[in-house]
Design a protein that fits this description.
The protein has 200 residues and is mainly α. The protein has 8 helices and no strands. It has one domain. The protein is 77% helix and 0% strand. The protein is globular and about 50 Å long.
Length: 200
């Protein structure tokens, strides 16, 4: 169990370092292509919190959900990205993004045990809003596929960070650290309310 925790913490740490390094270098190179797309999920607290919450929720669910939940988010985010790039109107995008932080944070806080199909539907629904925002804000001179690859990889890394943290804390010391994950989810949900209210 201790070895498993060390591996999960190492994985989470690697994801954190990689995302930090990538974000620190977003001004270099072709900012309208892959690098710009990669940096976009880091451009707002709402995106970051939602992505990490998906990873935490996947870690709580365990089993097949461990990889299906993040995969569903990334897949449906790609669909939303296409809609955004082609100018398809999606109402209440910003509200949907803020609501994703509130709902996904609450799902972690209360350890909501949805059936796997319902969990996939929930994260997939919110992923469309995030993807639409990424696609709609793509610079006119950006290479679409490179931009999309960038924001999808960055999203997957943030999911990985959440999964790693969730697995590491969930496997330690008699469930005490499970409460840390739940409190983190609660804090995320409150932050989402602050984002919705325009405070954050």
């Amino acid at each position: 169990m201790a070895r498993y925790s060390i591996r999960a913490l190492s994985f989470a740490g690697a994801m954190l370092v990689m995302t930090g390094l990538a974000h620190a270098h977003t001004g270099a190179g072709d900012a309208s292509g892959f690098v710009h797309g990669f940096s976009h999920p880091f451009s707002g607290l709402d995106h970051i919190l939602a992505m990490v919450a998906v990873g935490l929720y996947a870690a709580q669910r365990g089993g097949r959900a461990l990889w299906l939940v993040p995969l569903a988010f990334v897949g449906m985010m790609a669909v939303g990205g296409v809609l955004g790039v082609y100018g398809v109107n999606l109402p209440l995008v910003e509200l949907g993004i803020a609501a994703s932080v509130i709902v996904l944070g609450a799902a972690v806080a209360f350890e909501v045990r949805l059936p796997t199909a319902a969990a996939l539907g929930l994260v997939g629904f919110f992923a469309i809003f995030h993807g639409h925002a990424h696609g709609a804000e793509m610079p006119a001179d950006a290479a679409g596929l490179s931009f999309a690859a960038g924001f999808m990889i960055a999203t997957a890394m943030l999911h990985g960070l959440g999964v790693g943290l969730g697995l590491a804390t969930g496997s330690l010391a008699h469930g005490r650290f499970d409460r840390v994950v739940r409190y983190t989810g609660g804090a995320m949900s409150l932050a989402g309310i602050g984002i919705l209210a325009g405070v954050l």
